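Exercise 7.
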Amino acid sequence: MKFVLKMAAVLLMGATCAAAVAQTYPTRPIRLLLGPSPDLLSRLVGQKLGERWGQQVVIDQRPAAGGIIAGETAAKSPPDGYTWLLSTASFLTLAGLYPKLPYDFMRDFSPVTLMGTLPWVVVVNPAVPAKSLNEFVQLARAKPGQFNYANPGNGTSTHLVIEMFLNDAKIKVVNIPYKGVVASITDVLGGQAQMTFAITQAGVPHVLSGKLRALAVSSAKRLSALPEVPTLAESGFKDMDVVGWNGVHVPTGTPRAIIDQINKAINEVLLTRDMQERMAAAGFEPAATTVPEFDAYVKKDFARYTKVIREAHIHVD
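Solution. The predicted structure, written as C-alpha cells, is:
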C-alpha cells in the first residue's frame, strides 16, 4: 500500500512539474527541423509564433538522405518541446521503404497537429484524347502499357499515390521516374510522358494556361482554383481521398501539457485570415486538428502507404 501511495505521489509530482513548465513555455528559441520539403509553410507559421511568443522558431533544413538525417536528428533530441519536426508523408514512406532506419517514426515521435494539406491534380498532356478520368481509364485499358506516367522519384508519396490509383483503376501505365517534381512535369508538358499526379503548386498554373489538362483532384472536395474539375471520389474512386500534408511532430516523451500548448498556438495561427490567405496563395488548404485527430490521420496514411509499397513491390536503389 505504501508503494502504491509513493508511486501516486511521484506521478502527481511529475504532472504538476510538467504543467508548471508548460505555463512558462517557451523560454528559449525553438528548432524546427525539415527534410527535403519546401520551407514556405514552416516559415509562415514560425514567424507568427515568434511574434506571439517572443521566441524565435529557427528553421533547420536538412534535406540529405530524403529526410532521414532530419528525422534522426529530431528523434534523438531532448523531449522538452524545443525541437520540432516538420512532418510530411515522406517520413511515412521512408518507414515503409527502409526497414532499418536509425529511428522509428511511429515509435519515436508524438503528433502535435496537422497544419496544411496539398491535393494532387491528375493531369495529362493535351494530346491525350481523354477529357475525363474515366475516359483515360478506358484508353489505358484498351492499350495496356502504352501510356507512361511521370513520378518525381521512386518511393515518393506522389509515386505511391499514383500506384494506388492504378491499382484501384486496374490499369497498367508505365512508370518513368524522375529526379524531382520540375523534371517530371516538364516531360508531361513535352509529351514524353502522358500523365502524372501534380501537387497543386506545380500543376494548377499549367492547367490554367492550357498546357496541361486536369482530369481530377485527389482531395475530398474540389479545389477553389479548379472548381470545374471533379474529385477522384466523384469520378468513381471512393477510397482515393489522399493529399500531401505538412504537420508537426515532437520527440516521444515530450510532456503532453507542452504538446497541447503547441497545438493550441499553431491552430490559432492557422485560423487567422492573414494566414489562410497566404496559405491559399501557396496552394495549401489550412488543416488545424486536435492531437488525437492528427494521430489517427497519420496512422491511416501510414497503413495505406505501407500497403501499396508491399503490394506494388516498390523499392528504392
